[in-house]
Structure formats: structure tokens, C-alpha cells
Design goal:
170 residues, alpha/beta, five-stranded parallel sheet, 6 helices
């Protein structure tokens, strides 16, 4: 396990099952950092270290975590396992790879049984997972809601500028 934090008290936990997932999941940390949202990061496998994972999940609230982003490939058990162990919101990031190039991960994370809710973003889309985590936190944080509104406005302006440039060159 490793911990990283933009502030002293993390609001989001980013967890993934293998060190090979770090490149994909680093996008979540970068996006959370852009909003000034503190986060912790851990590499824990639902299959290889289930008791360690359960202990880690058990301490999330005490550490101030309000949302979990869980990335997983192949069988993708991690997001569902985390969701089964906590009442915190869990956002799953299916990671591509393996024989089915991520379709198995996507379906495994999206098809949770009733009562084990995991919000699922697109393959490798840790950025959207972080934006969704910020949206969840912004419900009760007006300062974060303002940052999110600016982010969305800037995003829209950049898209409009790109369309205008594309139209001018046509």
C-alpha cells in the first residue's frame, strides 16, 4: 500500500488490484489533485489479499474517506468486494487487458447484484471516475461545487473553440 494526499485528510481512496494498473489509475489522482481533493492510494488485491483489503476498507471512514474509486482488470472483483464491505459510494474503473481486452472487467463491474451498488465508468477512464467522485463530494461542499462548475465551463469552452476552429478550416 502507498498513500498520497493533496491535503492531510483524504476524501477519496483510489485502490487497484495490481501495480500494473498504476498508469491507468494515476489519472484519477491527477484529476483529484486538479480540484485540490485529498486522496489516498493503495494497491490491494481482492483475490490475493482479501483480509488485508477488508481491514483497509474497515478503516476508510476513520481516515475521512467519503468516496472510493476502485480499478480492476480481468475478473474485476475489487470494486464489488469493496462495495460489499462498505456503505461508502464506490466507483469502478474497468481496466483493459487479458483475452477479452477489458470487456470482462466492464461487465463484471457493471453487473453487480442488487444491493451491491458500484457506479461504473468506461474502460480505463479513471479521469471520469475522479470527476464523478468530485461531483459526489460537491453535493455538500459549496467551494468544491464552484470549482466543478468552472471545470465544466472550461471544458465546454474548449470544446466549442475546437469546433469553431474545425469549422473555420473546413
Amino acid at each position: 500500500m502507498s498513500a498520497t494526499s493533496a491535503t492531510s485528510r483524504p476524501k477519496v481512496a483510489v485502490v487497484y488490484g495490481s501495480a500494473s494498473d498504476a498508469a491507468t489509475m494515476s489519472k484519477a489522482g491527477a484529476t483529484l489533485g486538479r480540484f485540490g481533493v485529498g486522496f489516498e492510494e493503495a494497491v490491494l488485491s481482492a483475490h490475493r489479499a482479501p483480509r488485508t483489503l477488508a481491514d483497509w476498507v474497515d478503516g476508510l471512514r476513520d481516515r475521512g474517506v467519503a468516496v472510493v474509486i476502485a480499478g480492476a482488470g480481468l475478473a474485476a472483483a475489487l470494486p464489488g468486494t469493496v462495495a460489499a464491505l462498505t456503505t461508502l459510494p464506490v466507483i469502478g474503473v474497468p481496466i483493459s487487458g487479458g483475452a477479452l481486452d477489458g470487456m470482462d472487467s466492464l461487465l463484471a463491474i457493471a453487473q453487480m447484484p442488487p444491493g451491491v451498488a458500484v457506479a461504473t465508468v468506461g474502460l480505463n477512464n479513471a479521469t471520469n471516475a475522479a470527476v464523478l467522485a468530485v461531483q459526489i463530494l460537491a453535493v455538500s461542499d459549496p467551494g468544491l461545487a464552484a470549482k466543478l462548475a468552472t471545470y465544466k465551463d472550461d471544458f465546454e469552452k474548449a470544446a466549442a473553440d475546437g469546433l469553431a476552429r474545425a469549422g473555420a478550416s473546413a
